[in-house]
């Protein structure tokens, strides 16, 4: 999974004590944005140029490429939406898409559930041990996905790892972590190991911002920490949780590195195991850049629309409550 | 609803501690394994118990690591640091200027751009890699360091974070006062605003640094020359060779030792700088 963005920021608005979005606060303070039109635009210009060069142009180019096809007999010709028709009827792509959705439906709730439980624990327990737990849980974030996948690949394997042969001690059969039935679980474990601590820190930071006054009366009334956690703290950081979820979904849809590395251990990971792997192989194994562009564009577009709609609805709801 | 063992009286926290202990074990075991495995020769790696030491071979492994294939690993290490450092510096600088411009100025198209910025955060980075590759190959700069560094400069999230931070922590009055004193806009940015933005900038820098250091897909697509590889791509090529050779060449021990050396700098940096990333994460998540 490649994720280049930390999932913190858009959780800005609507913490319960100030339910109004942050954007409206400066207006209340009568913020005077001084009018230096040229200076302001010049500050944004370098960033804008990078956006054009490495976001808008590539997306546009991918779309343009996806509208043609190349064949030995006919050369390159305009084929309109043919590549998209092909993509949405391509069993390999649809299988890969379904596999990633299935993977996400299980892995994301498990990971975020553990992360939330960890964050609530860290918020309530402030021992040295808890600090150690926080640091160690975050460490895998600094480990490249490639190295994480390699490490787990070794740990899963019978020749290098300690786990596969464990059942033989009791006379059972060794576990094959790379078998068809366990492969998704094995991959899920790698991703969970890598990203749980990261999400935990994000949620923990959000919890630290919940004012103590919000649950002081609950404490006096004799509510247990678990009750406070579930009834006061979790609702208070709802926004941060949903954003962690949506950014995890974005990451999962791009699933690439772990399956690509694991394919060396598990040969049944095919060229189209995930949509992103398929797009990559269409370009570099089959040299079909036009179809690959259509796959990239479809993937990018689907993820973008889902994520943007989610955030939009979320903000609306946040602003109203 | 009953309490799950944790009670609100102090001292009865054995259950959370037990669970945290299990968590520590889970997160630590793979890292322990890589530390232990890096001290083993390849035959020991294959035969000795996985989570305990055999004959101590770390020094030999490191020597072999830096001499294998004409010392290419050292080059990968330098490349990784160079790509990650340049990308993080550049992305942070761009985000700093843009975030400040958006937070404290008004100009034509600003509203639209701010709305679009939120959308840009949602664009999956890997969907851009293949089209970017095709464009850069037309321009003839694939298989150079720039093919990795330039696309990594794009950090809409960084600009967004800085914008939020400036909004909250850089008073308009201060900037106005400097303008009354006839300070130029660049000087105001450089001498007044930049130092005030430091926590946000450290966060953006660290997150972009990690993202580029750990990136695999982009360099895999962009680079074909082994001398230009970063650690992630380089180690994978060694691993492929090791698998195909079925252990004839002594490479598995190098993949493991190389992996260890690849993660040490970032883990150390994060532990040392935790004050910064925590305040940064808090700035993003809480404000």
UniProtKB/TrEMBL annotation, chain A:
Xref: Pfam families: BPD_transp_1
First-listed, main subcellular location of the protein, grouped into a coarse class: membrane
Similarity comment: family membership: Belongs to the binding-protein-dependent transport system permease family.
Presence of the UniProt keyword Cell membrane in the record: yes
CDD domains named among the record's database cross-references: TM_PBP2
Listed PANTHER family: ABC TRANSPORTER PERMEASE PROTEIN, DIACETYLCHITOBIOSE UPTAKE SYSTEM PERMEASE PROTEIN NGCF
GO BP term, pick one: transmembrane transport
Membrane topology designation: Multi-pass membrane protein
Lineage: Bacteria, Bacillati, Actinomycetota, Actinomycetes, Pseudonocardiales
UniProt domain ABC transmembrane type-1: residue ranges: 97-312
Listed InterPro entries: ABC_transporter_permease, MetI-like, MetI-like_sf
Transmembrane feature ranges: 38-64, 97-120, 132-155, 175-195, 240-257, 291-313
Sorted UniProt keywords: Cell membrane, Membrane, Transmembrane, Transmembrane helix, Transport
Cell membrane in keyword set: yes
Residue segments, region Disordered: 1-29
Protein name: Carbohydrate ABC transporter membrane protein 1, CUT1 family
CC annotations in GO: plasma membrane
Compartments in which it is found: Cell membrane
Automatic annotation (TrEMBL), chain B:
Keyword Hydrolase: no
InterPro entries xrefs: MetI-like, MetI-like_sf
Keywords, ordered alphabetically: Cell membrane, Membrane, Transmembrane, Transmembrane helix, Transport
Location, primary (coarse class): membrane
Compartment(s): Cell membrane
Cellular component terms per the entry's GO annotation: plasma membrane
Gene Ontology process terms (BP): transmembrane transport
Membrane-spanning ranges: 18-38, 81-103, 115-136, 148-166, 251-273
Keyword Membrane: yes
Membrane topology type: Multi-pass membrane protein
Pfam families in UniProt: BPD_transp_1
Boundaries of every ABC transmembrane type-1 domain copy: 77-273
Similarity comment text for this entry: Belongs to the binding-protein-dependent transport system permease family.
PANTHER family, per the entry: ABC TRANSPORTER PERMEASE PROTEIN MG189-RELATED (PTHR43744:SF12), ABC TRANSPORTER PERMEASE PROTEIN MG189-RELATED-RELATED (PTHR43744)
Protein name: Carbohydrate ABC transporter membrane protein 2, CUT1 family
